[in-house]
């Protein structure tokens, strides 16, 4: 079966997670008839390009030792344009101001006839329709399960498993870092700053953690859900956003006294009373949305299947890589 050649653009927590996943799943993938070869990995310092296949173990080791994967000063855009390959894994950090550099990387990949799998929310929250049009015009696949909910399958669930249903509304927890912070503050009585530091160290938080705690990251994910599942045409500016920075330990204790927890909830509802909003809410402790730690959760209201609830780890290197790998496999299957 044909080998699909990949590049990994961006080698932070997510990119390294993808390299680790490919290393550990190599035998399984080969036995499933999926032949993948990473021909380039780039970060902000340069790239490592090996047309016969990058040694992933050595690449991970180099990143750990020297802070960069690069063995040359070839930059990401040149890798995307000039290295012969079929699929770009775009894993650079989210930028909600202009979507760059990820937006340009994705558009260039499409224009060079390469499929894109991404975890980068910024470009999709700002230019969803342009990206989908460009992928379509170049007859390539564009998949982004990892942009919403980390390992929690939601986009593919709505599009594939719930195909035929009308999704009426979705509400849920879409940011692992905020959920981790609120859970640890509630359960362990730890301070906000301490737990935020932990979330950063554990690779849950965005490169700019303000995106997490101000609700920006959850808002981006809602925009992606709204456009992809509800067929809306919205951008980040259409979301009403309140984060968790003003939630005090006292508020969490008061909520607990009446059997409630405070959660950062995202809601999207189509139709006349359309809503697209992120805000902290009181949730009964026994409610399906009251999940803890880095878990994300989504309650989908559908016309045929009724309510469908899905949960899974919303942040983390290997968890996000799980969603990326599922998209890569889907492309391989659809390409044969
Ligand atoms: N920082 C994000 C979160 C990572 O905490 O949910 C996954 O998108």
Could you explain the architecture of this structure?
By secondary structure, the chain is α/β, with parallel strands linked by helices. It is built from 13 helices and twelve strands. Strand 5, helix 6 and strand 6 (142-143) form a beta-alpha-beta unit. Helix 5 (102-111) runs parallel beside helix 6. The mean pLDDT is 96. L-homoserine (HSE) binds at residues 150, 175-177, 204-206, 212, 217, 314-315.
Quaternary form: single chain
Bound compounds: L-homoserine
Q: How many DSSP H or I helices?
A: 13
What summary fits the major beta sheet?
6 strands, mixed
Taken as a percent bin, the fraction of beta residues is 15-25%
What pattern of helices and strands is seen along the backbone?
A: EHHEEHHEHEHEHEHHHHEHEEEEH
What is the CA–CA distance across the termini?
8 Å
Question: Quick gist of this model?
Answer:
By secondary structure, the chain is of the alpha/beta class. Helices cover 42% and strands 22% of the residues.
């Amino acid at each position: 079966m044909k080998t699909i050649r990949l590049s990994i653009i961006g080698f932070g927590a997510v990119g390294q997670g993808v390299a680790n996943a490919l290393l550990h799943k190599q035998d399984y993938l080969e036995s499933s008839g999926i032949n993948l070869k990473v021909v380039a990995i780039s970060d902000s310092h340069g790239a490592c390009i090996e047309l016969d296949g990058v040694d992933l173990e050595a690449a991970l080791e180099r990143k750990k030792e020297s802070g960069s994967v690069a063995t040359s000063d070839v930059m990401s855009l040149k890798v995307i344009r000039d290295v012969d390959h079929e699929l770009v894994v775009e894993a650079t950090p989210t930028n909600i101001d202009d979507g760059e550099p990820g937006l340009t990387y994705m558009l260039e990949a499409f224009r060079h006839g390469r499929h894109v799998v991404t975890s980068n929310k910024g470009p999709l929250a700002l230019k969803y329709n342009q990206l989908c049009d460009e992928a379509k015009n170049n007859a390539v696949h564009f998949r982004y399960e990892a942009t919403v909910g980390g390992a929690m399958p939601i986009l593919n669930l709505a599009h594939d498993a719930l195909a035929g249903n009308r999704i009426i509304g979705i509400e849920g927890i879409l940011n692992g870092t905020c959920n981790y912070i609120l859970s640890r503050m509630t359960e362990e009585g730890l301070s906000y700053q301490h737990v935020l530091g932990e979330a950063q160290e554990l690779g849950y938080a965005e490169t700019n953690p303000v995106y997490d705690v101000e609700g920006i990251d959850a808002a981006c994910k809602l925009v992606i859900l709204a456009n992809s599942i509800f067929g809306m045409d919205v951008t980040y500016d259409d979301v009403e956003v309140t984060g968790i920075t003003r939630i005090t330990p006292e508020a969490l204790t008061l909520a607990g006294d009446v059997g409630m927890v405070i959660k950062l909830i995202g809601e999207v509802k189509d139709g006349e009373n359309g809503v697209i909003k992120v805000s902290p809410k009181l949730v009964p402790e026994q409610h399906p949305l009251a999940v803890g730690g880095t878990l994300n959760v989504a309650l989908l209201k559908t016309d045929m299947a009724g309510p469908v609830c899905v949960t899974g780890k919303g942040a983390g290197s290997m968890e996000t890589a799980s969603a990326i790998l599922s998209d890569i496999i889907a492309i391989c299957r659809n390409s044969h």
